[in-house]
């Protein structure tokens, strides 16, 4: 943002014609235009975001019973959450899921992208778009549909996954994924893998295509092995996209809701022994089913703060890595 | 050992053979391994779709008997038929008379199209303002936008719901459309994309007497077409499959969207998976067509938004 120093100078108030026509191309144009362009966003956001957000912030300190009765309770909602074992499960599950997204799903997506990108023969180049299309295709199905589909694909004895596992490794035919507390989170991670790996892969692939191939080759000639080339050349070149995708995944993971709701629909999205409850499922339950909007808002606070903490840590890690 | 295990073993066994045949020139071997892994992953990704197609046409009596389609000699109207689709399109009685599935599809299409157009227009316009102008409060506004993406939308539903009740906007489609008309995320994507539009073009437009809005519409927008296509694809996917907000805000039977109606076939009381899956299959078709049509633009748009991210 260079060249904006004279922004508030009186010359700007002069009529358009008096200005010297573009002797020096101006980067910025003043006047009402940007305000007018941003007006729809500001108006709609004030009504549908700022106002409800302020309401929700305040509500966290009230106990409510439906929208009409409100009692000020101070920090009691937060104290309740602190002691509620169901909330602990929700927080634990959500963090587990987020970590799985970042440390399992994203490396897999990156691996697939590199696999696709490293093909050099004519045939491989031609097939690249084809594979990309296939891997992205699960995103055409909404999370609600995916959840219900997989609740059928994971049924004991008949489910496609159960049968495939049985044939491959001789285990899993009778496993009831959505009824066994130990298997609920693995099932959820598995389904999200199917759904989102291709999505993140498309991002990584786009980034990898802009990596300088000569730099990689030079490193290889200098005797670096494949891992060293990846770690010292490829990864630093795509770091912006990596950070972007990591943060996008974090926000998405903390907002996980529709997928478990549909996958675990026999238990209202909670899973046996709360083994699949997420923060947003919990929020939905207390706020919209039990009618305590105050407690729900308190959960919303926790979600927002968690996302900020995670994003902050990720930024710091990225910065430290960059300075190394 | 069964057939599947042996097949996999043989397929992977070919790799070391290829490698040992010419260890100095392992390109063919690696190509083979890459192709094999990608093919297997693709099969894993696609098999639920094949299963879905089969399940939508299978009669409920043989749903569990065959994993995919029944063997060819068993193909008959008793194993494969259109019952699920007939049931879906049969129509339901409601207070406002018979409502047919076509109505829900029409609602979904209208709802998705309008919100895609609204979001495209508002996001690109705001993104343009943020990338090519400098003005008071710009930094604060951008910080606000980044913060706003971290707030879970579910949290805001209750106050918005109350507001809708107060203004009698419940069950009104325009009301629902307005709640999702702007997104900070979309504005950021467009800001990133428009930053790479050369300033000279904008200055030239100004000298030629183009209005500020004209510059946006005639000069900037054509240059960020890939971004627009990618963004439309995103919004379309999200809105077409939207469940939570429409489920809360829409009430009359003849206003409902397809996903909400399809979901009613699965409940704690009774589950008609066949009908649900038939509905799912139909629901995939519009985004699939759009995605095939916009694939190139989608990919290059994604990269223009993210690479500089």
Structure, described:
The complex is a heterodimer of chains A (324) and B (309). Chain A contains 13 helices and two strands. Chain A is mainly alpha-helical. Chain A has a two-stranded antiparallel sheet with strand order 1-2. In chain A, a hairpin with a 3-residue loop joins β1 and β2 (69-72). In chain A, α3 (85-117) runs parallel beside α7 (181-208). Chain A starts with 32 loop residues before the first helix and ends with a helix. Chain B has 14 helices and two strands, in the order αααββααααααααααα. Chain B has a two-stranded antiparallel ribbon. In chain B, β1 (92-94) and β2 (97-99) form a beta hairpin. In chain B, α2 runs antiparallel to α14 and α4 packs across α8 (184-195). Chain B is mainly α. Chains A and B meet through α1, α3, α4, α5 and α6 of A and α1, α2, α4, α5 and α6 of B.
């Amino acid at each position: 943002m260079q060249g904006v120093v004279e922004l508030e100078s009186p010359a700007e108030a002069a009529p358009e014609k008096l200005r010297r026509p573009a002797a020096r191309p101006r980067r910025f144009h003043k006047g009402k235009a940007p305000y007018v362009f941003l007006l729809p966003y500001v108006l709609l956001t004030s009504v549908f975001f700022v106002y409800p957000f302020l309401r929700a912030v305040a509500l966290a300190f009230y106990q409510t019973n439906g929208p009409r009765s409100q009692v000020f309770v101070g920090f009691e909602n937060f104290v309740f959450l602190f002691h509620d074992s169901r909330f602990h499960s929700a927080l634990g599950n959500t963090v587990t899921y987020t970590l799985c997204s970042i440390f399992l799903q994203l490396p897999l997506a990156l691996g697939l992208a590199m696999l696709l990108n490293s093909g050099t023969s004519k045939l491989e180049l031609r097939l690249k778009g084809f594979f990309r299309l296939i891997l992205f295709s699960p995103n055409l199905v909404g999370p609600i549909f995916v959840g219900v589909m997989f609740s059928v694909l994971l049924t004991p004895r008949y489910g496609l996954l159960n049968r495939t596992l049985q044939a491959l490794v001789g285990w899993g035919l009778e496993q009831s994924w959505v009824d066994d507390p130990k298997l609920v989170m693995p099932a959820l991670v598995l389904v999200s893998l199917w759904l989102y790996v291709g999505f993140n892969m498309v991002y990584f692939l786009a980034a990898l295509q802009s990596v300088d191939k000569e730099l990689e080759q030079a490193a290889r000639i200098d005797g670096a092995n494949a891992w060293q080339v990846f770690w010292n050349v490829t990864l630093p070149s795509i770091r912006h996209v990596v950070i972007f995708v990591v943060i996008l995944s974090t926000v998405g993971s903390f907002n996980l809701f529709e997928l478990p709701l549909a996958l675990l629909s026999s238990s209202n999205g909670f899973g046996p022994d709360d083994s699949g409850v997420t923060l947003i499922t919990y929020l939905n339950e207390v706020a919209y089913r039990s009618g305590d909007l105050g407690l729900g808002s308190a959960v919303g606070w926790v979600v927002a703060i968690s996302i900020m903490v995670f994003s902050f840590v990720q930024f710091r890690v990225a910065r430290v890595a960059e300075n190394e | 050992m069964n057939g599947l295990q042996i097949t996999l073993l043989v397929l992977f066994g070919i790799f070391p053979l290829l490698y040992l045949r010419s260890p100095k020139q392992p390109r063919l071997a690696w190509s083979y391994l890459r192709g094999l892994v990608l093919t297997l992953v693709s099969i894993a990704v696609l098999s639920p779709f094949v299963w879905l197609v089969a399940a939508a046409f299978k009669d409920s009596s043989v749903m569990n008997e065959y994993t995919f389609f029944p063997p060819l000699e068993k193909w008959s109207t008793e194993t494969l038929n259109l019952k699920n689709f007939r049931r879906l399109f049969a129509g339901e009685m409601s207070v406002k008379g018979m409502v047919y599935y076509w109505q829900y599809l029409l609602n979904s299409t209208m709802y998705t199209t309008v919100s895609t157009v609204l979001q495209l227009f508002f996001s690109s316009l705001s993104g343009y303002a943020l990338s090519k102008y400098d003005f008071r409060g710009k930094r604060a506004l951008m910080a606000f936008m980044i913060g706003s993406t971290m707030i879970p939308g579910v949290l805001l539903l209750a106050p918005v719901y109350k507001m809708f009740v107060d203004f009698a906007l419940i069950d009104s489609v325009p009301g629902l459309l307005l709640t999702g008309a702007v997104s900070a995320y979309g504005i950021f994507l467009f800001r990133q994309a428009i930053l790479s539009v050369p300033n000279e073009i904008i200055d030239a437009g100004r000298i030629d007497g183009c209005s500020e809005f004209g510059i946006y519409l005639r000069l900037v927008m054509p240059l960020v077409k890939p971004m627009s296509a990618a963004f439309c694809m995103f919004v379309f996917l999200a809105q077409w499959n939207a469940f939570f907000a429409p489920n809360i805000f829409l009430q009359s039977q003849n206003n409902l969207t397809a996903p909400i109606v399809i979901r009613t076939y699965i409940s704690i009381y009774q589950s008609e998976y066949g009908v649900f899956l038939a509905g799912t299959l139909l629901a995939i078709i519009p985004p699939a067509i759009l995605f095939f049509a916009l694939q190139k633009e989608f990919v290059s748009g994604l990269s223009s938004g993210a690479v500089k991210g």
